[in-house]
Amino acid sequence: MAYEDLREFISMLDAEGELARIKHEVSPVLEMTEIADRTVKAGGKALLFEKPKGYDIPVLLNAFGTERRMKLALEVERFEEIGERLLSALEFKPSSFVDALKGVGMLKEFMSFIPKKTSKAPCKEVEAESLDKFPILKCWPKDAGRFITLPVVITKDPETGEINAGMYRMQVFDGKTTGMHWQIHKHGAEHFRKMAEKGEGKIEVAVAIGVDPATLYAATAPLPAGISELMFAGFIRRERLKVTECETVDLFVPANAEIILEGYVKADEFRMEGPFGDHTGYYTPPEPYPVFHITHITHRENPIYHATVVGKPPMEDAWLGKATERIFLPIIRMMHPEIVDMNLPVEGAFHNLAIVSIRKRYPGQAKKAMYAIWGTGMLSLTKVVVVVDDDVNVHDIREVIWAVTSRFDPARDVVLLPPSPTDSLDHAAYIPNLAGKLGIDATKKWKEEGYNREWPDAVEMDAEVKRRVDEFWNKIKNMVL
Fold first, then answer.
1. pTM of this prediction?
2. Are 290 and 350 in the same domain?
3. How many whole angstroms separate alpha carbon 169 and alpha carbon 278?
4. pLDDT for res 314
5. Of 276, 300, 324, which closes a domain?
6. I need a surface site. Which of 32, 60, 122, 127 has the fewest CB within 10 A?
7. Are residues 347 and 199 in the same domain?
8. Could you give the CA distance from residue 146 to residue 89 in angstroms, rounded to a whole number?
9. Based on the domain organization, do 173 and 249 belong to the same domain?
10. Helices 317-335 and 67-74, packing angle to 10 deg
11. CA-closest candidate to residue 139, choices 53, 39, 31
12. Residue 167 CB contacts under 8 Å (≥ 6 apart), including other chains
């Protein structure tokens, strides 16, 4: 059964020994961050701070901070299961990654997860006057203030009426206004631009905080425009998501969310947002972003405030990123059959490095794989792509370094692209949102690629010797290891 809400997930974590209840009084200003940072880097438990200093609302942090908890959150044994389910429903071979996901979106099975409307909505149990009621974190010393870090931000496309649910940090300016960090490549920003181009004065926005795990993950997933994150959440859960109508805006929100904010963003109002200690490990500098005006706040009885802390990796968000890598890999492999596996290292902050293994069948195929990555959805923002042969485990950095240093000639095996779209948080870019790209071909080269000798054999033990040693290895393993 799918988790009905965040509380069921917390109860499951508790039952599995994956939750630590912190009964000491801890401040949401910096102190919770320090505890969460130490915990996540040690592979520790989810944290429920029961006595935030100055507040009577508990704070949940590090809920997804390990591979096991992320799998428990999505109720899978392997992340790839979700992507394989999507593929199994396809009745045609699409021509692009976007077509693949849009094809999924048109399927009868996927359409069966249209959110279910309900008037029974725990998220409306109590009204609140101000954000000041909630223990919103200030995470790092140079942050501009308190930031809402796990909001599911819901908007409607002004042209098509399609709903988007994305995750964008929100700096708290006061009890009724926040920043809305709509980066240039995000769908929320696209809705905002369309609204401004149509000459409309404002766009309605609803924000859900403290949702069930599948809905939270879906809001982070790199889905193309036109694919509903709320339907995708239902697909992951194998059960339709319950939504309820807002009170002051024409939008629907998850009915079992802990906290709901309703309001609007004006087309001509911007305010400096940041700095913010970000997942790159650096502070994102101040920039002007739209302002969210809150018209209505409701929450559940005895709400739980759900947040995350980002900073120098690894942090909790690493496992949201890893889930995305594995979930969408089956679709990428279908589009590009030479691709065997892919690793987006946590240390690369999602968009800075992709390591791809291929089953090489013809000369130049490694470069074809690079261009495939740079032409696929949000992977187009990837700064460095390393391509290796399929005998290299892309998740073992030792093997990757071995391949790069032994199969790569810097004079011949590099692809350099001129400034191209890059992540807004790429601090190395000389011009915001534009940076060069690097491809490294670390595959074994063929004569057809200009390599004028035979590639040497790798050092490997004879299979028969390995078989014979296997027969008594367990008897001596504890002595030698």
1. 0.90
2. no
3. 10
4. 92
5. 300
6. 127
7. no
8. 43
9. yes
10. 70
11. 31
12. 150, 151, 152, 153, 216, 219, 220
Query: Is 368 in the same domain as 282?
Result: no
- In 319-413, DSSP assigns E strands to 339-343, 353-358, 384-389
Outline where 60-168 has alpha helix (H): 67-74, 80-89, 97-106, 108-111
CA–CA gap between residue 371 and residue 328 (Å, rounded): 18
CATH number, domain with residue 394: 3.40.1670.10
Is residue 195 within 8 A of residue 203, CB to CB? The reply is yes
| Domain-embedded: residue 325 | no
pLDDT in tens, 71-110: 999 999 999 999 888 887 665 555 555 555 555 555 666 6
Contact 338, 360 (CB under 8 A): yes
Which residues are CB-contacts of 44 (< 8 A; sequence separation ≥ 6)?
20, 38, 62, 65
CATH classification at residue 209: 2.30.110.10
Q: How far is CA 430 from CA 47, 287, 347, 353, 464, in A?
A: 39, 16, 21, 18, 56
**Structure confidence by residue, pLDDT tens digits, 144-156:** 999 999 999 999 9
Looking at the structure of the chain, the number of domains it has is 2
Residues 296 and 351 in one domain: no
Domain boundary among 300, 320, 347: 300
For residue 468, the surrounding DSSP H or E stretch is helix 463-480
Residue 311 lies in a domain: no
31: CB partners within 8 A, 6+ apart = 53
Exposure string over 366-404, b if 16+ CB within 10 A, otherwise e? bbebbebbbebbbbbbbbbbbbbbeebbbeeeebbeebb
> Could you tell me how far CA 322 lies from the centroid of its own chain?
8
Burial of 1 (0-12, 13-18, 19+ CB in 10 A): exposed
pLDDT of the residue at 424: 80
Structure tokens at 205: 């926005």
Any idea which residues carry the catalytic annotation? Answer: 278
Q: Is 238 contained in some domain?
A: yes
Domain that holds residue 403: 336-449
The string of pLDDT tens digits covering residues 329-359 is 988 898 889 999 999 998 887 789 999 999 9
| pLDDT tens digits for range 61-73 | 999 999 999 999 9
